[in-house]
Amino acid sequence: MALRKDFLWGGATAANQCEGGYLEGNKGLSTVDVIPAGRDRVSVMKGKMKMLECNDQYFYPSHEAIDFYHRYKEDISLFAEMGFKCYRLSIAWTRIFPNGDDAVPNEEGLKFYENVFDECLKYGIEPLVTITHFDVPLHLVKTIGSWRSRKMIDYYERLCETIFTRYKDKVKYWLTFNEINMLLHLPFGSSGLVFEKGENEEAVKYQAAHYQLVASAKATEIARKINPEFKIGCMLAGASTYPYTCAPEDVWKAMERDREHYFFVDVQSRGEYPNYAKKMFERMNIKLKMEDGDEELLKKNTVDFVSFSYYGSRLTSADPEVNTQTAANLFPTLRNPYLKTSEWGWQIDPLGLRITLNALYDRYQKPLFIVENGLGAVDTPDENGHIEDDYRIEYLREHIVAFKAAVEEDGVDLLGYTTWGCIDLVSSSSGQMSKRYGFIYVDKDDDGNGTMKRSKKKSFYWYKKVISSNGEDLE
C-alpha cells in the first residue's frame, strides 16, 4: 500500500503567528495579541500571570508577525512553486467577529479569507482550515471568562455557521480546535483561561474542555447540514509516551500520560467519555456541568478524520526522584538518552512518528493527517544570502521515511502531511523569529527588525522534489 495518489503534501501556519495586521480590517483584539515575547510569555500562556491589555514594557510579536495579511499572494505563489497540494491555515476569530459576541460578522474579515482561499484554489492548493488556533476574542475573556462559560458554545457556533456558509464551495477540510489537549498545559494561550488564587484549576480546565468538545460536535453537525461533502477533523498535540524503564509502574505511568491526551480525541472520535476519564473525575472530585442532549450530540457527531502535530516522543517515570522535567517543548518529559535534541532541547524521534501513527490508527480506525511536523533551528544566511539547511532536510526526510513505513508496511490510512511553519513565522512557544521552521526565510529578527524579504532555502528545492515524486525522491 503506497501513499495515496491524491496525498495532500503541503505546509501549515496559524493566523496569530503569521498574519500581523492585528487591528487592520476592523479586526478585534485576540488573546494572542496580549501574549508578549520574552521571560513572561509562558507564565501568561499558562494563565498564571494575568495580562489582558498590551503594556509598553513588552514586545508583542503577533502584532506584525510576518505580515501575511498584506503579502499572502507572494507567499502562496511560493507555496505553489514548491508544488503544495494543501495549505493548512487558521482563521482569526476576531477578524470575523471582532468582539466574539457581535450580532453581525465583519465583512472585511470574511473577504480577506475569501481572497486567500481563492488564491490557493488558483494554484490547485486545497485549503485545510483550523477554525480556531489558540485564538479567543479578548472581549469574551473579559466579559464571560472565555471557555469557563457555556455561552462560548453559542459564539463558536455562530462563527462556524458563518464561515461554513461563506466558504462552502471553497474549503473542504476543516479542523475544529488546534491541539485541543493543550488546554491542560497552556490554558490561557490555547483557551483564554485565567485562574484566580485558590480555585480548583483542574475542575476549571475540564469544564472548559467539555464546552469545547460540545462546540466541536456542534460544528460537525452544522458542517454536515451546510455541505455534506465537508470533512471535519479534530487535532491533537500528538506523541507517544515511553516508560523510563520496563518496570510495570513506569509502563502504567506512560499509559496514564497518553490517556491524558487521548481523552479529547476519545470523545471527538468515539463520541463518549471513556470510563477511565469518568473514574479520574471521581477521584479528583470534579463534577462536570452537562446539559440534557450533550451526550447525544457528542455521540452523533464524531469527526471524519484525526489530525495531529508531531515533534518528538515523550518519556516518563513513576519514580518522583527521576521524574524531573526537561526544557523540551511545553510538555513535561524526561531526557531520552537514545535521542538527539534540537537547539531548543526538543527530542528528535522519527520512529516515534511511526509508533504514534500506529497507536492512533489502532485506537480510532479513522483516516489520519499529520498537520504539523518540523524542526525549529537557527538559520544563518551565507554572504550570498543562501541558507544550506541540511539539518532540516535530514529531519524531514527521516520523518517522511517513518510515515511512509506506517502506510506501506503497517497499513495506516494517511490523508496528508503539512510541515509546520512552511515559511518562517513567530514561534508559539518562545515568541521568537530566530526559531525558524520554514522552507522560506523571512528577514526579521526577534525584536521585530528586518526587511520582511522572502528568500528560498535549500530545503525549498528539496521539498519541491519530494512533492513532485509523491515522496519517492527523498535525496
Structural write-up:
- Keywords: Glycosidase, Hydrolase.
- This is Amygdalase.
- The protein is an alpha/beta fold.
- The chain has one domain (8-468): Glycosidases (TIM Barrel).
- Helix content is 38%, strand content 13%.
- The chain has helices at residues 15-18, 41-45, 68-82, 93-96, 107-122, 138-144, 151-166, 187-191, 201-226, 248-270, 275-283, 294-300, 350-364, 390-408, 458-468, and strands at residues 8-12, 86-90, 126-132, 173-177, 231-238, 241-243, 305-310, 314-316, 340-341, 347-348, 368-372, 414-420, 440-442, 454-456.
- It has an 8-stranded parallel barrel, surrounded by 5 helices.
- It is globular.
Outline of the structure:
The protein has helices at residues 15-18, 41-45, 68-82, 93-96, 107-122, 138-144, 151-166, 187-191, 201-226, 248-270, 275-283, 294-300, 350-364, 390-408, 458-468; strands spanning 8-12, 86-90, 126-132, 173-177, 231-238, 241-243, 305-310, 314-316, 340-341, 347-348, 368-372, 414-420, 440-442, 454-456.
Q: What is the CATH top level name?
A: Alpha Beta
Q: How many domains comprise the coordinates?
A: 1
Q: Considering the protein shown, what is the CATH homologous superfamily?
A: Glycosidases
First-residue to last-residue Cα separation: 22 Å
Low-confidence stretches: none
Name the beta content range.
Answer: 5-15%
User: Number of DSSP helices?
Assistant: 15
- Provide the residue-averaged pLDDT: 96
Shape: globular
Widest sheet, order of strands: 1-2-3-4-5-7-11-12
CATH topology: TIM Barrel
How helical, in percent, are the residues? 25-40%
Which structural class do you get from the secondary structure elements?
A: alpha/beta
For the largest beta-sheet, the strand count, sense and barrel status come to: 8 strands, parallel, barrel
Order of helices and strands: EHHHEHHEHHEHHEEHHHEEEEHEHEEEH
Radius of gyration computed on alpha carbons? 21 Å
**Total number of β-strand segments?**
14
